[in-house]
Amino acid sequence: GAVVSQHPSRVICKSGTSVKIECRSLDFQATTMFWYRQFPKQSLMLMATSNEGSKATYEQGVEKDKFLINHASLTLSTLTVTSAHPEDSSFYICSAATGPGEQYFGPGTRLTVT
Amino acid sequence: SQQGEEDPQALSIQEGENATMNCSYKTSINNLQWYRQNSGRGLVHLILIRSNEREKHSGRLRVTLDTSKKSSSLLITASRAADTASYFCATPSGGSNYKLTFGKGTLLTVNP
C-alpha cells in the first residue's frame, strides 16, 4: 500500500528556534500533500494544502509566515515551524493524496517547545 | 467548523462485543470516509462510502450512509483488544474532493 513517512517522529526545541518536519511519499507520487495539527484528545485540524511546485494554500487562522511549507517534489513536502513557542507544541501529521478521496497519512511528529 | 461530529465521544466494550459509532455532517457530500488512529500515531484509512451507496462492508467493518439524515455509522463486529483506537469520520470540504474535514472522533476501548 501507499506509505508516507515523516521525520523526525519526535523533536524537542527551545523557544525561538525553528524546526523542520519532512513528509515523504515513499512508493508513490503525491499530487497534493496536507498538513494537520492535532492537540491531545482532539481531532485533526487542517493547516494547509500543499501542491508540488506551487505555493501552499493555508486555512483560515494559520499564519503562513510562521508555518512555512515547501513542496519541493512529488514525493516531498516540508513544514517549518519558525520561531517556535510553547503554544506551538502539538502533534503534526501530514498526508498525501493522488486524487480525490483517500488520503495516506504519515505517522506524525510530536513537537515539544520548551 | 467541524463538518463531522461523532458520537459517542468514548466507548468501552468487552472483547467479542460489537461497537457502533455514529457520525453526522452538515453539508452535502459525495463521499464519507472512516479512519482509525492508534494513540500517538498517524491515521489509517478504513473505508470510503460514496453518496450513492447505503452500506459497505470490509471484513469486520460495516459502514452505512444515510444522506437524507446526513449521518453515517461504523460498526465493528466481534471486537478485539487490538481494535482499541480513535475512529474519525471525514468528509470532503471547501468545495474540494481533496480536502477533508475530520470529526471529533470516538475513542474506542476494547477490554480483553
Question: What do you see in this structure?
Answer:
The complex is a heterodimer of chains A (114) and B (112). In chain A, 0% of the residues lie in helices and 53% in strands. Chain A has no helices and 11 strands. Chain A is globular and about 35 Å long. The model of chain A has no long low-confidence stretch (mean pLDDT 93). By secondary structure, chain B is mainly beta. In chain B, the strands form 2 sheets. In chain B, strands 2, 4, 5, 9, 10 and 11 form a 6-stranded mixed beta sheet that branches. Chain B has a 5-stranded antiparallel beta sheet with strand order 1-3-8-7-6, with no helix packed on it.
Q: What's the short story on this structure?
A:
The complex is a heterodimer of chains A (114) and B (112). Chain A is built from no helices and eleven strands.
